Records
---
Amino acid sequence: MYAFTYETPASVADAVRLAGAGGKPIAGGQSLLPSMRLRLAKPGQVVDLNGIAELAGIRREGNALVIGAMTRHMDVAGSAEVQAAVPALAHLAAHIGDRQVRARGTLGGSVANNDPAACYPSAVLALNATVITDQREIAADGFFVGMYTTALNEGELITAIRFPIPKRAAYLKFKQPASRFSLVGVFVAQTDVGVRVAVTGAASSVFRQQALEAALNKDFSVASAAAVKVDASDLNSDIHASAAYRANLISVQTQRAVAQMLG
């Protein structure tokens, strides 16, 4: 490790001021701290968001759930409100990492980091959520830009995410057993604007699988999903799985998600 200053703001305004001056925000620390230990990240100032009470919590607003950026994975998983409104989201949160990770990791930290194999980005994209920051509101389709890259400006902080409540949804995750990240995760949601299928773990960033969406919007059935040949040309190939294997997993996980949604 190396020298840096450590700030603990008590309000969003103070955190925004520090971040705007070059401070690096830290939420659960599940990504930033390992990066700092490996010297992949070397912030001169760390801005700890954990003392800002207004950034945590879950509330219902009309036909949507608004979840604060500093809400822990374990709190999303255990929330009766989330379990009733979007059980697939509670299920997703309950299967992130291990108990220690779920006790520290946060919704906002995961989404802002946009790890290619993180679970939450698939929920944000499939549920057509809105990322709320200290500056603006960003639609899910315009938020995830690329590997570890989002539409956030320098110093811009996520304060909450608004999830429209779907008609039904399911999340299926094939884990990489050592890290428990998604080798392939598929979130399928039937929303007011149609079926959305978001995939994580298979490419450099979370993405919508449009061929599966088109098929399922015409005929929401397991057979319809099975008939789609998933293109492997832009998918990851590494020591854990080939691109062709990941393409097959996308198909299989989508079929299983549809079957689950159909009961």
Note: The mean pLDDT is 95.
---
Amino acid sequence: MRISDRLATLVSDGDGWGVFYKARALVAEGVAVTELTIGEHDIPTHPRILEEMHRAARGGHTGYAAVPGTDALRDKVAAHVTERSGVPTGRGNVLITPGGQSGLFAAHMLACAPGDRGLFIDPYYATYPGTIRAAGALPVPVAARAEDGFQPDPARIAASAAGATSLLINTPNNPTGILYDRDRLQGLVDLTRTRGLWLISDEVYDTMVWDGRHLSPRALPGARDHTLVVGSMSKSHAMTGSRIGWVIGPEPAISALIDLATHTTYGVPGYIQDAALFALDEGAWLEEEIAAPFRRRRDLAAGIVAGCPVVQSAPAQGAMYLMLDIRRTGLSGLGFAEALLDRHRIAVMPGESFGRAAAGHVRVALTVEDAALARALDVLLRFAEDLCREAAE
């Protein structure tokens, strides 16, 4: 039987994650590998959240839940977003989704008709091109160059905007750790408003900001009527497996997305929504507890890398990663990552996994305990220095 072109071409550019798959295969064989690949916490979901999830399930909240989300959770998310962004937000602006990824797909289904162009910033999270293709649109990456600190360039985006109906951004950024500055964000808001594009803002790392403060573009002048914000409990509350997130947007857009949810996900389990409500009610202390190890490891890692003459780090202002420039070794990001895994059993992600703009870089996830991270970085940097010496001889 024929597989539809929509699925057969979903990842036609390849996912570039061969190093990750190889590392996992080695681990399955019993080989010790230091995995610094994906953004998965090294702690489980907080026991108090799990207890609430258990209580809600045992209490009977296991049937169909309201498709847009429970009133209580939508109200809580709206209050949470209002407090964080300063933008008045109500229940009608909120759709609860099965995680941030589902929210990204829903947002593009709203913004893009078949054949439209969906813009996104390169480097990018690995699912972005496939998500846009799944919505029937053509994914169009626009480079944010290492030489510009991986900040997006509104003029470069404008040059690619013909035929586009959406622009997807992500700040704090995965994979670079960059926080987009206010002037750049205002430029993107102005550009998308003028060109009639939906601005889709992936803000799942908004509680993981180490330098400066998170600014949602929805809070900027002229943004509210054409901006969709995707949020999630995955990173902020270590609830990756619970699959609970949301889309924030104008009420007519959310109404249309509720129709989409009715015909796709049919909502999120009620006991998971109850646990998310409990977690948000706990307030900032829990988010800070989840974020604290990554702030500490960012500082630790930045200090280690600063002493290396051949490897530089992009400014890690937020999220769970370091983006390291290893171009002086003479290897591509993929070549470096493969050699590091083969010789030293340390797994990092090649920059090329996240687009062409990150070529010659590797992404390091700060997802192991401090001492193991420090050892792995020491080995990585010595390996890079050895490669440079070999190239010079």
Note: The first strand starts at residue 34 and ends at 36.
---
Amino acid sequence: MSPDDALSVIPDGLRNPLLTEYESIVQNYVEHRWKPSELSGGHFSEIVYTILDGYSGGTYASQPTKPPDFVGACRRLEQNADAPRSFQILIPRLLPALYEVRNNRGVGHTGGDVDPNHMDATFVLTSSNWVMSELVRVYHSLTTQQAQQVVDGLVERRIPLVWEGTNMRRVLDPKMNLRSQVLVLLATSPLETSTAELLKWTGYQNPTYFKKLLRDLHRQRLVELSKDEATVQILPPGSHQAGEIVRSANTAWGA
């Protein structure tokens, strides 16, 4: 099954918002925009709840709805004994946790006990990815592996720019200049990266010029280059520029 066919049995009024919010979670995570990624997790939870409620009741709402008591509404889904186990128990118990990140972790409202961060955004990304895979698996009677492949395809249409293999990462646009490649690779790496590894990822053959480029980016406060120049990490202005590069590249590639 192609990604375009994923969840085609769900009405467009729910399917389209679901795909939009999922892609938003992934895209914002790639760009290190933790707050928008976590905020989309809250919207994603509301949409998935509406889908599960429609599945159990046999009639889908025309658009996503937000129940007044989200936790209580998810608990009521557990009474649907005829639903698949994941629709009855697993997803209804996961959605309130996703919603809690949006509501009480400094994302949707002020006064949360922590600011938006990589750890919470990773939880949102991983959880929403699992939920999407489970929706595809149940609705299309696939294996877990097949369902994950379909969901991966949804993401690849959105961010076809960076490939990751064993001990190797590549920017797939051969026309992208070195500076842009460096920013994109660093922005999609949550931890600091060794300069030697980054050089290998770009495939660039001039280490002297490569170090000069990193120093220039460091002076521009786009990256943080360690004193021994052994490691480098993206800074917020660099992450912002990388996001613009990704969006521009996706448009050019027709993503």
Note: The chain has two domains: 3-158, 162-252.
---
Amino acid sequence: MYAFEYTRAGTVAEAASKIGGGKFLAGGQSLVGAMKLRLAQPGNLVDLAGVKELVGICMDGNDVVVGAMTRHADVAGNADVQRACPALAELAGGIGDRQVRAMGTIGGSLANSDPAACYPAAVLGLGATVVTHKRRIAADDFFKGMYETALEEGELITSVRFPSVMKAAYIKFVNPASRFALVGVFVAQTAGGVRVAVTGAAGCVFRVKDLEAALSKSFTADAAKAVKLSADGLSGDLHATPEYRAHLIPVLTARAVEAASKR
């Protein structure tokens, strides 16, 4: 590690005033590891662990509102989330391992925007809204690229608003070592139409319009399986080729549709 300034904030206002050009520390599951490897070298860390207003889950009308510092395990076990959007609870319960779920936060995951993270698929798939201390950002406008979001320097996520959903499910093909998604697909039937969000297959989470169009006509596994996707722009690595990921996306979409239809 290296020398840096450390501040433990007590409120959102204090955290925003202390950040300067530094980084917010949420659960630390990604940032601390990156700092150890010198992939990130902030000169100032503002710890959010003491900011109680960022923690918790509540219902606001039909929306589920999740505070940015709410742990994955708490999202998975929350009765309101399980009732209003069981797919979100199941997704949170499948992130990483027990230690990651006990420490990692939804705000930290979204701000980091790992290409294979699970939460971005839920946020984009459900058409959620990311709320910061400055503004509200629609999911379709939030994710910009690999580890890149619409957040401005010093902008702090305070909560995420998930709208009501008719049917939804998340299925991921797991890397057995990291537990990240080799490919993960979140499918949702919402008031605004069908949304299909894919993580693990490119530089950041993205929607698949061809699958959305097919499922809008027929919300069935067969409709998803019939869609053939190009491998252009998809990631290739030692775990899977772009072509393999292109094949997996409709397959996992079909499984997600089957799971959603059983609810």
Note: Residues 242-261 form the longest helix (20 residues).
